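From the shared-data thread, chain only:
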Amino acid sequence: MDKEKITSFINLLKDYLIETGLSEFTAKYINIVVVLIILGGFAYLLDRILRKIIVKLFTLFSEKTKTTFDDFLVQSKFPRYTAHIIPLVLIKLTFPVIFYELPFWFEVFTVAINVYGIILIVKIIRSVLRSTKNYLRTKEHYADKPLESYMQVILIFLWGIAGMFVVYELTGKDVLSLASLGAASAILLLIFKDTILGFVASIQVSVNDIVRIGDWITFSKYGADGSVIDINLATVRVQNWDNTFTTIPTYALISDSFQNWRGMQESGGRRIKRSIFIKQSSIKYLTPEKMEELKKIQLVKNYIEHRQLEIDRHNKRVEADKDVLINGRNQTNFGVFRKYLDSTLRNNTGVNNDMMIMVRQLQPTPQGIPLEIYCFSTDKRWENYEAIMSDVFDHVIAAVPYFDLELFEEPTGNDIKALLNLNKTTSPSN
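Structure, as tokens:
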């Protein structure tokens, strides 16, 4: 840039204004205003032209490269921000020539340009960070990492540093003194308490692999039950199964207890653990006649036969008097039913035979004896899991009467009415 030509143009314009009858003071300021308007218009046009050229060239370049990083740079407006640098430098170089007679205004406009330059640098770095984050999201290794948290922390420090430089430009005072740093630290700790907690928590979450994006978590305290879709510095966002969203503070993942279903999703099956209640009065010893009837059920025929041979040998050895059924050892309808359910589960293609399968009694309750089925479905998808579990218990409930057992069920209004009507019809007055 030819400073002599600019100076000559400014002086000529000033002389012309004086010749029109204006005072030297007025002519000087009008001269500066006119030059600023011309310079601003030129810088604006240059900025628009450069922005279009740089963005277009960068877009064409990104389309021809194999990497997607430059595509994300275009999306984050990196070329657009860099296009502002040349007009900014042009204005900064021109100011000493324009304001050589006005040192005060030279200082004011220089500070304004410097502050704008600091903000522009932050925006350029921010666009690079966003592009890096979006690019890493496309990589399988980083897809479930809380990259948003790290980016936000870097931006906080970046804006903090930029703020110190802006204060220095506006006041001319060194903000890096010990007193200033102490006061600033206290203010930052107070203002960004939750942010700092979230940052520490996000590091612990990532390092300890507590939660990943895509994990299914259940957090009763916050009413969350669904898939994690975002982890950032302050919050974790969960999309619940009813398509609502729940926001959880990031540090709550460290301070509170929650359930992560990732282990189930990565295992060979999803657990089925449910009980039915058997009326205790329906449990009885099996008579020879009932055993013969139950042998018609294929899944327990061999069991009944082998078990009875073992029991007969024991009873013979102890000389049990079988005229009374309770003497010695006996099979029960409940025991055979448990064996039947175990065999049924092991023959069910929806149940994973490589994982635990168990049918067990629990402690008796006023509602009867809980008979618990414990196994794992082969399909972990929710709708298929529910279908498998429903099919299992449909069969269990339908099979109960074949073993002369009864399920416990609270009496309904119709049951009570039927009982009252029965009492009326059998009363002596009738």
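The first helix runs from residue 3 to 19.
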